[in-house]
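Allow me, if you will, to draw on your knowledge of protein folds for a short while. A protein sequence and the structure tokens that stand for its backbone fold form the material at issue. I would ask you to consider whether the tokens describe a fold that such a sequence might reasonably adopt. Thank you for your consideration; the sequence and its tokens are set out here:
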Amino acid sequence: MPDYYYLLAFFATILATATLRPVAGKIGLLDIPGGRKTHIGATPLVGGLGIFIGLLSISIISVDVINAYAPLLSLSALIVFIGVIDDIKDLRVIVRMTGHTLVAIAMAIVAGIQLESFGNILLGEEIALNSFALPVTVFATVGVINAINMSDGIDGLSGTLVVVALICIGIVAGSKADFVTVSFIALLSACILAFLTMNFRRPWNQKALVYLGDAGSTMLGFMLAWLLIESSQGEHALFPPVYALWFLAVPLFDTVNLLIKRPIHGFSPFKPGVDHLHHALLRRGFTVQQVVLILAASSLALAGIGLTGYFWQASDSVMFQLFLGLFLLYFLFCDRLDPQHQH
């Protein structure tokens, strides 16, 4: 793929997002302050739509990319549609989750993207899923969608964490000379970076021009789930499944921690709240930009451990045990970050 395609994707995303901004108010795609939301003024929720349009517009002119990723783009369009309706109407959790589940089933059955094995994560023995492949695939996909959606609480965070994971997949794909995967990941990353230029606060403007919206965060979560499953399964896998955990460590840590702790305290694990890691850091007095930097650096560090393990050919079981050990430390000590806010 010519290098200028990535620049085209970047500017196509900027153009699409800028065009959609004035339309947002007319169709109710606005994030209005109140309750948990403390931003200034109504902000258009069109970042995800802009990314999708930018990505699609360049993908369709690249034969290799569209041949490989047409099913992903088609199913992502459904995720975007559900997300736009959610952004406008605020869908009930059960409706949204049902939609995501049906798309994940289509991904597994129609497109054949399935988690068939966890790799050799226990004592060097492979854990094949066999008849559990479909339900585990659906659970994992919906889980990643929600992990990215839950990290979309402050400007630039979820987009930055997704780019970190994409870079990791891209590095491994590049090392295996899988240039179609590298091209698609570079296109998607260019579109996300275009969105981030309109989303990050600037010294002369302390307000985001657009937000990702549920349409954007769930779409990025779905695309990431697809790419991680596709890259870690089958005889042409780029890396063992355990490394998917490392590439996505920060949002997984935060989401799994809350999925365990919220029910213990009598709260729904799916209800929006201010108990995420980024909220805890904000209450500690860090600015939005500092929190994004801290979590991006943490994500890079953990992904770096994963990449090091991969290139040093560490055993799956060692990498899995190390990941579990770090999660356990986080689970036990994260509440000390924010002792005043205990559910």
The chain has 13 helices and two strands. The longest helix spans residues 63-89. The first strand starts at residue 30 and ends at 31.
